[in-house]
Specification:
alpha+beta; Beta-Lactamase; Heat Shock Protein 90; 5-stranded mixed beta sheet; about 55% helix
């Protein structure tokens, strides 16, 4: 790692060290500010939730106390007591046994003026009666609901007021009941209201934009069985159906509350303030909650601001530092860049000299060195090109000489030997057979010599031109390799033997590579001639290859093609990929 750091430039080292120091300082300040403000926001949110919870608790208690007060006022009305007494000591099922006019006047009209009351009820001798305040023309009706008689009996005879837990009435509605004792009657008689749970939901779900609960906060109730006692803000029909985690009111002291970060009934992380509401023997837990993410929005906003300001400060300070460092090290960087270009083979570089100090003198010396290197490279390239051309020309000359010697010398001698053997008559049948075998061997040797001579320098190239020579190559491929070939050569004014020979060798090399490696089914060769340009395209549909990998691996075939094109002052491009064949495109300036 330290070796890599040593390879970095001075500019990067200085700017990196200064930037790291700035980032460390800003990171420390940012973390400290974020942590402090986060704690303050969470503490403030708990206080706000507790305040909302106290307010909801107060309103529920006021609502219940109001209903109990209304029952007490009704129970102490003299005319109402008379009706109750008439009901208790007479047959309640007989409509004529009651003064229904007085009942409508006193109780019915009173109930119709009350809000949040479903039924008026009378409990006596373990029998429960009710009347609907919207229909008081009928007599009292026996009323039975599962669990309510048990609640009434459990309170005993000494309870002045009874408040039940939530129950489901005969219509499937979720309600609760409030009873107060008629103290003016000897028997234990209670009167009460059936109140829908909607009255509690209206208090819990009040949408007050100033209550501090935001978009995700809510206040709800839960019983000892952990089931919700008020409607959820987010889940419909949640009363007595949704289970609330950690809602046991026995774990909460009546004078205290619990403020914690926990998961609510939806499994969402929230800030929660919980306390208890006690109704007689029934305890409910009241929760005031808000989503953790929403509560921390101010903190996250501050965090984003700290990050933004920190990044802006880092960029600003780093930019100033970089400008100063670059101004000092810019000449050295130019020298390094120029050296990199020279190492990449580009000698046409010049470092501007703007100062006369040590760096300026170094830049001037560097420019002189580059100029001398460029001159030497051009001279070496010229000499190399001449040597390559001389070598190729020598090869062609030797091929022509060997071709003539094989054809005119060894070939003629072999034919002469064959003809002389043909004139000899064998003395025996065995001698005749030996002579025939010798003639066949000589004939095969003649054919081989002719093929070698033709490959070294095909006579058809010098006698009939490039088009006929290329067609002969393709004809031989079609016959021997069963590969489809096509040729389109249009040369009218090309009479340079050197160019013709080089083009033939290029085609010969390309076709040879195709036969060895391409596994193609067709080969197409096209040569066109323009005013000052000759275009050659060799195309096959073989398996293809990666030109960069093949050239980098030292392929002699492609290297020979490129060298010959370069000697003809041309350009060569090879396009190929796996499975897509190969196209060799060459342009030669006449």
């Amino acid at each position: 790692m330290f070796k890599k750091l040593n390879n970095l430039s001075i500019t990067y080292k200085l700017s990196g060290i200064i930037t790291l120091l700035i980032m460390t300082a800003m990171l420390f300040v940012g973390i400290f500010s974020y942590t402090t403000i986060k704690k303050a926001i969470i503490s403030r949110t708990f206080e706000q939730l507790t305040s909302v919870r106290f307010e909801k608790t107060r309103r529920i208690n006021n609502f219940l106390n109001t209903k109990i007060l209304e029952l007490n006022q009704l129970a102490n009305t003299s005319k109402a007591i008379g009706i109750f007494d008439n009901l208790i000591f007479n047959d309640s099922t007989n409509q004529n046994s009651l003064d229904l006019i007085d009942f409508n006047h006193i109780i019915g009209d009173y109930l119709l003026k009350q809000a949040n009351v479903n039924k008026f009820l009378i409990y006596n001798k373990n029998v429960l009666y009710y009347v609907n305040p919207e229909d008081t023309s009928k007599h009292f009706v026996n009323f039975e609901i599962t669990g309510l008689d048990t609640i009434l009996n459990d309170f005993g005879t000494d309870s002045a007021a009874i408040i039940s837990d939530l129950l489901t009435n005969d219509k499937g509605e979720i309600v609760f009941y409030i009873f107060t004792k008629l103290i003016c009657i000897e028997n234990n008689t209670y009167i009460g209201f059936e109140i829908p749970s909607k009255s509690i939901n209206d208090i819990m779900l009040e949408n007050n934009p100033y209550n501090g609960l935001g978009n995700s906060g809510e206040v709800y109730l839960a019983g000892e069985d952990r089931l919700m006692r008020s409607q959820s803000r987010f889940v419909e029909n949640s009363v007595l159906k949704i289970q609330v985690p950690n809602s046991n009111p026995n774990n909460i002291d009546q004078n205290n509350f619990v403020a914690e970060t926990t998961l609510d009934y939806r499994g969402i992380k929230v800030l929660s303030s919980s306390g208890i509401i006690e109704w007689g023997n029934t305890k409910w837990t009241i929760f005031a909650e808000i989503d953790y993410k929403e509560a921390l929005i101010p903190v996250n906003t501050l965090r984003d601001s700290i990050i933004f300001i920190g990044l802006l400060g880092i960029i600003l300070f780093t930019s100033i530092v970089m400008i100063l460092i670059i101004t000092i090290t810019k000449p050295v960087a130019k020298l390094k860049k120029a050296a990199d270009e020279i190492s990449g083979g580009n000698y046409n570089v010049n470092v501007p000299v703007n100062n006369t100090d040590e760096i300026g003198q170094l830049s001037d010396t560097f420019n002189q060195m580059v100029q001398k290197i460029d001159e030497q490279k051009k001279r070496l390239d010229y000499e190399k090109l001449n040597r390559v051309q001389e070598m190729i020309d020598w090869q062609e000359t030797e091929r022509q000489r060997l071709s003539r010697e094989l054809h005119d010398g060894i070939g003629q001698l072999l034919l002469s030997v064959k003809m002389r053997l043909g004139r000899i008559k064998g003395k025996t049948e065995n001698d005749e057979r030996i002579i025939n075998d010798s003639q066949n061997i000589i004939q095969q040797t003649v054919n081989d010599v002719r093929n070698i001579s033709n490959n070294l320098m095909p006579s058809v190239l010098s006698e009939f031109g490039l088009k006929q020579a290329v067609e002969n190559i393709l004809k031989d491929i079609s016959q021997n390799y069963k590969i489809a070939t096509s040729c389109d050569i249009n040369l009218t004014s090309l009479d340079d033997n050197k160019t013709i020979t080089y083009l033939y060798r290029i085609i010969q090399e390309a076709v040879s590579n195709t036969l060895k490696y391409a596994k193609s089914k067709s080969i197409n060769i096209t040569i066109t001639e323009e005013e000052n340009l000759i275009k050659l395209e060799i195309k096959d549909d073989g398996i293809g290859f990666n030109p960069n990998q093949v050239i980098g691996s030292g392929s002699n075939g492609l290297r020979n093609i490129r060298e010959r094109v370069k000697l003809l002052n041309g350009k060569c491009s090879i396009k190929s990929s796996q499975g897509n064949g190969t196209v060799i495109y060459i342009e030669i300036i006449k």
